[in-house]
Amino acid sequence: MKHYFTTLLSLIFILLPATMLMARSYKTYSITHDSVERTYKLYLPDNIQPDAPLIFVLHGYGGTFDLDFVGMNEAAERHGFAVCYPQGARDGRGKSCWNVGYPFQADMEIDDVSFLGALATHLQQQYNLSPRKTFCTGMSNGGEMCYLLAYSGQSTFRAVAPIAGLTMAWMPEHYTLTRPIPLFEVHGTEDRTSEWTGDMENKGGWGAYMAVPEAIDYWIGRNGCDKQEHEELPLKTADAHKVIAHRYIDSRHGNDVWLYEIIGGGHTWGEKDLDIAEEIWKFFSKFTK
Questions:
Q1: Alpha-carbon span 91 to 106, nearest angstrom
Q2: Exposed site from 30, 95, 113, 170, fewest CB < 10 Å?
C-alpha cells in the first residue's frame, strides 16, 4: 500500500503544470531605496548555480510586475538564470511607471536608474548572482527605461532589450558621453502607441521621440558595428506576423545591436509572433561567457 501511494504521488508531481511547480520559488519582496519602499518579485530556479545571470523584466506604463505570460520563468528553468520583476512607482496620475522624462512626469523625484542599480547589487550579493551577467528588458515604458539605462552610462546592466520601447528625444540631447552597450529592440511596425516612425511633434502626449530605425542607427554607430545580417524568421504559427531580424555586429568588442521588426505587429511583447523569452535570452547569453 505504501508503495502504491508513493507511486501515485510521484505521478501527480510529474503531471502538475510546470507553472505550479515553479511557484515554489516565486515570491514578492520589498526594499527601501531613497526612503521609498519598493516591491519586486524574484524567481530563482531550483537548479540555479553560483554566479548565475540575473535578468530584470520591466512592465509598461500603468502595469504591474505580473508578467508570467512573457515566459521568462520557464526560460530561467531551461537556462539557469534568476529573474527579477520590479514594480514601478506611481506618478502624479496614480499610474505605476518608470521615470523616463515624459512631460507629465516632470514632478517625479524617483530616480529609477539608481533604484534598479541598487536592487541589482542587493540581489547579486544576497543570492550570489553575477555582477558581470546582469541584464534588463522591458516593454513600452519599461522599454524606454531600458533606453535610459543605455544612455545614462550606468555600469550595472551588461546589455538591454527594449520591447516596443522608444528613445525619447531628450535622451541623446542630455547624455552626450554615452558608452557602447549591446542592445536588442523588438518592435511592431503598426504599433499605434509607440510609433515605429516616431513622434517628434509629440502628438501622442508622451513627449517627442525618435523613429525606431533612427534610434537603432545611433547605437549601431556608437557601438562600432561593422557587419550586418538580415533574416526572415520562420513563422511561429500560421497566423503570426512576419519577423525580420536585423543583426548588426561589432566584430571587435562584441557590442552587437539587434532589431527584430515585426511586420504589421502592434503594441505587445511580441509573444504571439516569437518565443520572446527565448529570443531575449539568446541575445543576453552572448554576453555571459
A1: 10
A2: 30
The domain segmentation of the chain, as residue ranges, is: 14-287
Q: Topology of 14-287 in CATH?
A: Rossmann fold (3.40.50)
* Phi, psi at 94, each rounded to 5°: 85, 10
Antiparallel, parallel or unpaired: β 82-86 and 52-58? parallel
39-53 pLDDT, tens digit per residue, is 999 999 988 999 999
Using alpha carbons, list the distances in angstroms from residue 63 to 95, 134, 149, 190, 237: 8, 23, 20, 21, 27
**CB within 8 Å of 141: residues ≥ 6 apart:** 58, 59, 60, 61, 63, 88, 97, 98, 100
C-alpha 115/C-alpha 217 separation (Å) is: 28
Cα 286 from Cα 279, distance rounded (Å)? 11
d(CA 14, CA 215): 47
Q: What secondary structure letter does DSSP report for 273? A: T
Q: Are 135 and 158 in contact (CB under 8 A)?
A: yes
CB 225 within 8 A of CB 256: yes
- Per-residue confidence (pLDDT) for residue 26, from 0 to 100: 80
- Tell me what pLDDT residue 25 has: 56
